[in-house]
Amino acid sequence: IEDTLYRIHRYFFQRDSLVFEAMFSLPVPVGERPEGEAEDRPIRLDGVECRDFDHLLSLMYPKDFSSYELSTIEDWKSVLKLATQWDFDSMRNLAIKHLTLIASSADLVILGHQYDVTQWLHLI
Questions:
Q1: Cβ proximity of 103 and 118 under 8 Å
Q2: Which InterPro entries match (predicted)?
Q3: Cα within 13 Å of Cα(47), Cβ side
Q4: Ordered structural domains, the chain, with CATH
């Protein structure tokens, strides 16, 4: 992602994301190693920013299980963006819950259009 190589478990991605579950179940051509199994064969996530990915990872690998590091609209918007893109339903629902509490109605309507959150489209 950007110029950063992340070394993380694929377990949460495969378990919680329909997109990654499908990607990891694709057959690997004979004689090739699967993407992501070595530093010289990374999984490329083009168009993703480190900041957004870091916010998503903070939910998978929290420093404190009793609270979230994310607190701003931008933080939760990052999670909503990637969770929607990669079909992480539980993280998407968590982002929707937190954004509903902290964002203005106008912001929610805009985000609702961007990320297909129908419950926010009727606020104004």
A1: no
A2: BTB/POZ_dom, SKP1/BTB/POZ_sf
A3: 4
A4: 11-120 (3.30.710)
Burial class (CB in 10 A: 0-12, 13-18, 19+), 24: middle
Check residues 67 and 49 and name the one with the higher pLDDT: 49
CB contact at 8 A, 55 and 78: yes
Question: Tens digit of pLDDT for each residue in 80-118?
Answer: 999 999 999 999 999 999 999 999 999 999 999 999 999
Q: What is the separation of C-alpha 89 from the centre of its chain, rounded to a whole number of angstroms?
A: 10
> Using an 8 Å Cβ cutoff, are 123 and 109 in contact?
yes
pTM for the full model?
0.84
Identify the band that residue 54 occupies on the pLDDT scale cut at 50, 70 and 90.
very high
pLDDT per residue over 20-34, tens digit each?
Answer: 899 888 888 888 888
Three-state SS for 88? Answer: strand
Four-point Cα dihedral 27, 32, 35, 41, nearest 10: -170
